[in-house]
Design goal:
Helices cover 70% and strands 4% of the residues. By secondary structure, it is mainly alpha-helical. Helix 2 packs antiparallel against helix 5 and helix 5 packs antiparallel against helix 6.
């Protein structure tokens, strides 16, 4: 039993341990920035939620890379389709995001927070497979949409400080 366990820990990975830790740290930073913006706005899904969503998506991506490495060349293995990873993460996060969307008294709240959760999942997937440039651009663009566009909406009178229609 110890030999089996030792072989599992010595299993080669498609990414080195240094890269693995860097990807995990990167996704925590990028999704943490998205979550921090939500936290500052006092939304239900803040920094920890967005970080955990991104972390989970990155782990799923890393597991998929590992599976492709182990079983990719085996013609007898079950057919692997990496696109299913994106579908599974999207479906799971959609379920979580739906939980933060609330409709009361004719007002829908939580849509932007739900969308930020999806963004964190996408960032997690991109970092998990090593697409750093996409993750950086997505994070910066997400912050621009969340922060800068809110300022522009208020400046032109589309929304007031509470986030509801004037």
């Amino acid at each position: 039993m110890i030999d089996t366990l030792a072989s599992e820990f010595s299993n080669t990975s498609p990414v080195s341990m240094e890269v693995l830790f860097l990807r995990i740290l990167g996704v925590l930073v990028f999704c943490g920035v998205i979550g921090l913006e939500r936290e500052i706005r006092k939304n239900t899904a803040g920094i920890r939620t967005n970080m955990l969503i991104g972390l989970a998506a990155a782990i799923f991506a890393l597991v998929t890379l590992q599976m492709l490495e182990i079983f990719g060349e085996d013609t007898n293995a079950t057919r692997l389709d990496p696109v299913r990873l994106v579908e599974a993460v999207t479906s799971g996060v959609a379920f979580l995001a739906a939980g933060v969307i609330v409709y009361t008294r004719g007002d829908v709240r939580g849509l932007t927070t739900g969308a930020s959760m999806w963004l964190s999942a996408a960032i997690g997937l991109t970092v998990g497979i090593g697409m750093w440039s996409v993750a950086i651009v997505a994070t910066v663009t997400g912050i621009i949409v969340l922060w800068l566009l809110r300022k522009a909406e208020r400046a032109v009178g589309i929304k007031d400080d509470s986030g509801s229609e004037p």
